[in-house]
Amino acid sequence: MGVDEAIKRAVEANVPRTMSILEKYPYVTELAKELRRAKEEVIRNLDYYVDKTIKSLEAIGARAYLARDGEEARSIISGIVGKGKVIVLGKTMVGAEIGLREYLTSIGNEVWETDLGEFLLQLTGDKPTHIVAPALHMTRERAAEVIKRKLGINVKADPSEIAQAARRFLRDKFFRADFGITGANAVAADTGAVLLIENEGNIRFTTVSPPVHIVLTGIEKIVPTLHHAMMEVLVQSAYAGLYPPTYVNLVAGPSSTADVEQTRVSPSHGPREVHVILLDNGRSKAAKDELLWEALLCIRCGRCHFHCPVYRALDGSWGESPYVGPMGVMWTAIVYGIEKAGPHAMLCMHAGTCREACPMKINIPEIIQGIKARYVRLMGNGGMVHEDRR
Ligand code: SF4
């Protein structure tokens, strides 16, 4: 059984489930409209909101950084982490964008993915094929075979047995870890609160068990207020077909207690340090781009993938990893440039179903059309990439 069968099974499971969630909780689509307005406000005034978020993070005792590109982000993180450490990773797409796991391993750390899909990819060396379910291309049969071959644990081709084997293997890694690194679903500019949703419980362990928590996220994840951040996690999880999410994690600075004479001291049971790295890597340039700015509204729900005939036909390998699918073509242009995004954009058939499915109503077909036009111009210019990376 191959990749196409795995994706077919995932689409068949996810699409009806998401439809019934949106029917049952109609307020979610109203929240999505309000969230779009709030995110547009941030993208139009990105410098102001980045500055405000950094100040809010520092006010709650977190350390905040703005990284211009992947190299700067890796350097900030290696400065915090050093070498010879145990690091657990919650699923972070921005981490994959900058090759974080490979980098931290190369400088002498023991690094473990703790999200089940990411963990399976770490064991196989495969690339992610979906933004919410990165091992979407893997059948249960292959996942069981990987667990047996790489971990020496005999499991049946059964999702529950596979999850339990990963749980047993990863359990002590959480408690041995010196650092926990996660992404973020939203960062509230008014308070510096970071929100993360999940169902596995691995992010909860990763954010609380190690003594230091590092958040690595893109600047487009900033929303004006904590109210909007809450809104984002509800909308994202519903459109991802996982509603209500099992866990919503809110991190607002290091752990502390004021139980003795109301004197606040830190740490308590959780981390003593929280570091938040806000990554630009093409985002602020895209925010000023008349075509690409709208792609920054993406909340990574993964719904456009399931409704796209091209993504399904290409077995999830459409786009530059980790940015695959319709959103991935847009994000390949933002992060890696038109010359990388162009060949992927050329495969789009403009079915238009992605725009219909998208909670942010991003005009994905029009953006992909614009990427095609820029790519054709670029190629007409002999592929001189300096001329047009917009
Ligand atoms: S483009 Fe829209 S549908 Fe696709 S992942 Fe982003 S928010 Fe979800």
Written account of the structure:
With 390 residues, the protein is α/β, with parallel strands linked by helices. Helices cover 50% and strands 13% of the residues. The chain has 18 helices and twelve strands. The strands form three sheets. A six-stranded parallel β-sheet has the order 1-10-7-4-2-3, sandwiched between helices. The chain is globular. The mean pLDDT is 93. Bound molecules: iron/sulfur cluster (SF4).
- The average pLDDT is 93
Here the CATH topology of the largest domain equals Rossmann fold
Query: What is the CATH class designation of the largest domain?
Result: Alpha Beta
What structural class results from the helix and strand content? alpha/beta
Overall form: globular
The residue ranges in which pLDDT falls below 50 over 5 or more consecutive positions are: none
Can you count the helices?
18
Bound ligands = iron/sulfur cluster
The secondary-structure element order is HHHEHEHHEHHHEEEHEEHEEHHHEEHHHH
Largest sheet, order of strands side by side?
A: 1-10-7-4-2-3
The share of residues in extended strands comes to 5-15%
What portion of residues is helical?
40-55%
Largest sheet: 6 strands, parallel
The CATH architecture assignment of the largest domain turns out to be: 3-Layer(aba) Sandwich
Question: Going by CATH, what is the homologous superfamily of the largest domain?
Answer: NagB/RpiA/CoA transferase-like
Work out the number of β strands. Answer: 12
Radius of gyration, rounded?
20 Å
Summarize the structure.
The protein is an alpha/beta fold and 390 residues long. The protein has 2 domains: 279 residues, NagB/RpiA/CoA transferase-like (Rossmann fold, 3-Layer(aba) Sandwich), CATH 3.40.50; 104 residues, Fumarate Reductase Iron-sulfur Protein, Chain B, domain 2. 50% of the residues lie in helices and 13% in strands.
